[in-house]
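Minutes, methods subgroup
Present: GH (chair), OT, SY

1. OT presented the first of two proteins processed in the latest run. Sequence and structure tokens recorded below as shown on screen.
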Amino acid sequence: MMSSETRSGATPVNAPIVVAVDGSTISQHAVAWAAVDAAVHRCRLEIVTSFAIPFGFGPSVTLTQDDIDQLRIDAERVLDEATKVARAAAPDAVLAISTEAIDEPIIPTLLARSEQASMLVVGGRGLGAVRRALLGSVSAAVTRHAKCPVTVVHTTSATDAISVCLPVLVGVDRTVNSTAAVELAFEEASRRKVGIVALHAWSDTTGLALPEISWPGVKEAQDTLFAESLAGWAERYPDVSVCRVLVCDRPVHALLEESAHAQLVVVGSHGRGGFAGMLLGSTSTALLHSVECPITVVRGA
């Protein structure tokens, strides 16, 4: 198993998980997922919300001190509710939780904290009202620019009794970003005591693009390379059972289908079709908008 000194790379294992909340149901799902993940990693959970007026919101807005005080009171209420959700999600864990209401824009705050965090967690979208325009644009920004892995939670936290028994699904294409994603997926599966489904989509189209290609012959060669790319991780995490899925299909289509039977999807920020400096690939972008379970985007070194 991975050394207790690190978590997925050089980030110290005691680095916190940071989750952004805005009072919406989706953000509460994000808190629940973050609390469970903090519990299994035995690290601190930081819950943050912003009561700043987003830039570019209509005409110039002038707030009185009473307005600001009321926004702060509302933000503290959101944090109190989020803390209760976190405690309920991990009732048996000795979970260290800190909360903070900030009067600064949330995106640059999260990006700055990503340099010292082990994970950022956000909801897929937020309430969209003034100070609560916190998620949605936030999830898009942090998945592109954060320095640490980012988990986006949509309609479910996948922390119920059935979901927690499902495997972790990881996309594999043997790129640097894919290697980082595989490492994190094995660690998550090991700590959650579940197996891994590792999926490699050989083609970028549905079905064989070239009729003269013999898929059985290609499959045998690809399966050998696939097994070799996972062998080291399986030895490092002997407690994690591995199911390899090799398909001749588009990665998005194949991963989306498998995600219906997973508690978490893990992908690299961009894969074999990306280019140097690319912030987020087509596969990770499409999955962020389509999977129902939580999805973690990992950027390679």
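2. SY then presented the second protein from the same run.
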Amino acid sequence: MGVEHDSTFRSIWADLRGVAFSQGWIDAGGVNTRYLHAGGKDKPALIFLHGVGGHAEAYVRNLKAHSSHFSTWSIDMIGHGWSDLSDVDLEIRHYIDHLLHFMDAAGIKKASLSGESLGGWVAARFAIDHPDRIERLVLNTAGGSQADPAVMERIKALSMRAATDPSWEFIKARLEWLMADESKVYDDLVATRQAMYSRPGMEQAMRHNMILQDMEVRQRNILRPEDYGRIKAPTLVIWTSDDPTANVAEGRRIASMIPGALFTVMENCGHWPQFEDTALFDAMHVDFLLGKPVENARPVA
């Protein structure tokens, strides 16, 4: 008699089936920093960077495919997840400093960086300021190129509501905002973020995380054409058909400012394409990082 499996069951543990991974904390310049890691440390390093209010589980579905080729890290950036919370407003330079300290503490001389939203903003700035520490760059629905007051206010309102009252309803709403298909927000993901947002001090820490949604602060951190033009690392810009922060034209504009950058659009995805269409994301992403041709990715004319 065969064993029946519930194909509708979804959880972080289910996403990690068959993956040899570790979870740990490392002192990154005085910031106790949590990470997920998969793959041999003798392989080239790859670091995934999540968005504002996010955490390492943003890439939980991507560890397996990448660990075959890379020493793959997904970290909780300063002020996020289970890493130390911040008692100061976090601008891009603070995230850059934290990433540098993490790399030094982990013994990573050079890494490919793949960032989503805020993580893409940080990754791009890192590539500009520290070209000697980066191999390849992936900007995934990346922030930092524009200042849309409506989008900024929406991000801040949803995030602060969830951090002030980490009820199931508010945490779920914050996660659903990321997805083109809201049904992909499974209960275990909500519970994971709810536990993080229930940490003592998270409400005040979230205020520090949200400072980049302030127009004056954003303008002094924003990436301008001359900044993107300084990126020397091979770059892939991934955008989506249903991104809630900006349309495809903005993604194409970012790619057009980076010398030699490739650009592609993932259909029927929102702000977390690596989670919503993992198979396609992994296939393109791994090919790019290995220096292979990427299907449907082209330079912007």
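Chair's summary of item 2: The chain has one domain: 19-299.
Next meeting: continue with the remaining queue.
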